Amino acid sequence: MTQLTKNKGLLTLTLAACSAAVFAQNKYPSTPPEVSPMPMKPEMTEIWNPEVAVVTPGKTPSDPPSDAIILFDGKNLDQWVSAKNGGPAPWKIVNNDHIEVVPGSGDIKTKMKFGDCQLHIEFSAPDVVESAGQGRGNSGVFFQDRYELQVLDSYQNRTYRNGQAGSIYKDHAPLVNAMRGPLEWNSYDVIYTAPRFKSNGTLDSPARITVLHNGVLIQNNTVINGLTLYIGLHHYPEAHGDDVIHLQDHGNKTQFRNIWLRKL
């Protein structure tokens, strides 16, 4: 046997041994070393302070909790002003129970400004069913005076899907239509996250919204694509901070009651 043949044989055996070692290492990985010689105890992962703040919930899911800001409880419109001129809110209080839009009087807005929030609001279509599509019980809840959650009588009333009740108007349709009949009350329970902007004014993260309509999830952490527009694509034209909650006069006698909000 020549020296060259011997060398080839040794090389083959060496490669085979290396392959076997790699295979064994991959097939039977060694036990990882212990991260710490100190044994873990339950209390090492318990966080006690600061203690979680106590909030007393309402007696029912629609009742305001103890830390809520009451925006309307049937008594007065002291928390609201005319969006047109900043004067007294021009809508009508009915039976110390709810407010009704006075068509043509203009929108109303809160005196206080808000960003991230939890909002509860109840609404009903006008007592007399008139018109169809967008002309039936139309109004809207605008967050930060810009982003609209649509209010509409969508009970057996067909319209474009991203304009029906529970839509982020002209942006996202609701997952389902959970609307009650025109003479019944509906509720929106909303978790709203305001958009964030960079120091140079450009968008850092868009607004998001989760909505329960009569207890049914209809918007699930939905991204709001920008300023609500009737014509054109939604976008964020400018940076802004906290702003008012805005209710729309769309020419219908839409009714609202039991409006409260928690800052988040």
- CATH level-four homologous superfamily name: Exo-inulinase, domain 1
Helix content: under 10%
CATH class annotation: Mainly Beta
At CATH level 3, the topology is Jelly Rolls
SSE succession: HEEEEEEEEEEEEEEE
Averaged pLDDT: 90
Question: In what range is the share of β-strand residues?
Answer: 25-35%
Class by SSE composition: mainly beta
Unreliable segments (pLDDT under 50, ≥5 consecutive)? 4-24
Through-space gap between termini: 85 Å
Count of the separate structural domains: 1
What's the total count of β strands?
A: 15
Which properties best describe this structure?
mainly beta, eight-stranded antiparallel beta sheet, globular, Jelly Rolls, 1 helix, 264 residues
What does this structure look like?
- This protein is mainly beta and 264 residues long.
- It has a single domain, classed as Exo-inulinase, domain 1 (Jelly Rolls, Sandwich), CATH 2.60.120.
- Helix content is 9%, strand content 27%.
- It contains 1 helix and 15 strands; from the N terminus they run H-E-E-E-E-E-E-E-E-E-E-E-E-E-E-E.
- Strands 1, 3, 4, 6, 9, 12, 13 and 15 form an 8-stranded antiparallel sheet that branches. The protein has a 5-stranded antiparallel sheet with strand order 2-5-14-7-8, with no helix packed on it.
- It is globular, with a radius of gyration of 30 Å.
- The termini are far apart.
- Mean pLDDT is 90; it is low at 4-24.
